[in-house]
Amino acid sequence: MRYNKLKILRTQFLTVCKLFTILSFLFFINSCDPDDRMNTEQYIYNVSLENSSQETFTVTGYKTRDHLGNLLVKPELINSIIAQANSVSKTETIKVPKPLGDPAFGFTYPNFVNMVDSVTLKFTNGKGYYSTLDNNNFWLKNRSDLLNIKESDILLKNGILIYTITEEDYENAHVLP
User: Fold this and answer.
1) 107: which strand partners?
2) 104 pLDDT higher than 70
């Protein structure tokens, strides 16, 4: 009889443990915060580079660091954009989490998102500008670079966000190595 009581107590104890484990698991699952980034509203815009100078330029995006942040032996060319003199580049599409007018609005030029850490803008005379994720001291004076474009540096023309490179930008370009 004593054996039966022990068996019943053990069965009850195991049932309580199982119930506790299941409830703990359900509590854990319910307390996990879902990734709200997947549910946030996305705003879609068309963007282009406008070249209002008299010289053609090329914008090239490079990957200079590996996934650990170590400098690559040789930078990897990811993409390039050519804008003829007095023209507008091909229109690209971006998705951003903040709308125009929001103080947090900003974007990376579409051809450079998540792959590029260095951008060079080079005119046909070899002069130009460059920027990295860490340093934009050699970019267009008082303007955001193509890795982090601010709303103050774009114009909305015919439904397209335009980042303009001017004749003055050409005249003030740095001699690039």
Assistant:
1) 149
2) yes
Structural domain range at position 21: 2-32
* 89 lies in the same domain as 140: yes
Same-domain status, 79 and 166: yes
CB 117 within 8 A of CB 66: no
Question: Dihedrals φ, ψ of 124, to 5°?
Answer: -65, -20
**Non-local CB neighbours of 173 within 8 Å, separated by 6+ positions:** 123, 125, 127, 128, 129
Please name every residue paired with 130 in a beta bridge, in sequence order, or none if there are none. Answer: 120
Going from the C-alpha of 98 to that of each of 23, 37, 40, 83, the distances in angstroms are: 39, 12, 9, 28
When pLDDT is cut at 50, 70 and 90, the band that residue 1 belongs to is low
Q: Are residues 18 and 101 in the same domain?
A: no
Give the pair of three-digit tokens for residue 130.
């460059």
The whole model's pTM is what?
A: 0.76
In this structure, the answer to whether residues 99 and 138 fall within a common structural domain is yes
* C-alpha closest to that of 150 among 114, 101, 82, 115: 101
- Give the CA distances from residue 72 to residues 65, 66, 96, 118, 132, in Å, rounded to whole numbers and listed in that order: 5, 6, 29, 12, 14
Domain assignment present for residue 37? The answer is no
At a CB cut-off of 8 Å and minimum separation 6, what does 170 contact? 53, 54, 55, 57, 123, 127
Structural domains counted in the chain: 2
Backbone torsion region of residue 98, taken as left when φ is above 0, otherwise alpha when ψ lies between -120 and 50, otherwise beta = beta
